[in-house]
Amino acid sequence: MDLGDGLTWILLAAATLLGSSVQGAVGFGLGFTVVPLLAVVEPLAIPTVPLLLGMSLLLGTLVRDFRALDRRGSLLMMAGRAPGTVVGAALLALVAPHLLGLLVGAVLLATIAVSAARQAPPLNWRTQVAAGFASGVMGTAAGVGGPPASLAYRGQPGPVMRATVGAALLAGTVMSLAAVVLMGRWDWRHAAMAAILLPVALLGLRLSGFLNDRLTPGRLQAAVLGLGLVAALAAIADAVLHTVAGAA
Predict the structure, then answer these.
(1) Is the previous residue joined to 47 through a cis bond, with omega within 30 degrees of 0?
(2) Which residue among 34, 75, 134, 218 sits deepest, i.e. has the most Cβ atoms within 10 Å of its Cβ?
(3) pLDDT of 206-239, one tens digit each?
């Protein structure tokens, strides 16, 4: 697919709208819809585009729920995010662009497994640091850092989870983008892509209230996890097909 193709932009806009709507309601979702599509149409836009789009959503949810912020918890997750960012950057540097779909698919499958866990881990400094580390690895490597961080606060009141995880992810996104720049992977064209899709992401954030009023968080999460599973397998299949075609 070509980024100059109107259909590609329609698909990217639809994926952004759906993912941001769900993310505003349950704390994650954008990575499950946008990242697999980017892995097919523009692999080198990962993780820049999802990270930049995610920042706008994180700011919106943080402002909305700021009074519920667990400051100590967010700082602990930030402490774990720093070394996780280094590991994620190393993975990103080691994977060839045509194999990025495999990395994205593997990260998505891992995050789906984490998100589908029925029992929440105990909330303490160890799990908070570990969640930050996993978020750093997955967020920097593939732009999907929300689910591991959200898992640490599963079972907590919604505003507490959204504000605390949002603050940690916002700081972590800055770390990951800094890693992208230091690796020489920053491209202003990808920043422009994010800017074009930003109004759609903000619209999705507004629509999240509509979803909250009509669907339970459990149903929303199940839907986005199912969609993420299909998208992960599609990204892996696309990477395998390109590898086989290149070797032929």
Answers:
(1) yes
(2) 34
(3) 887 777 667 666 676 777 777 778 777 877 887 7
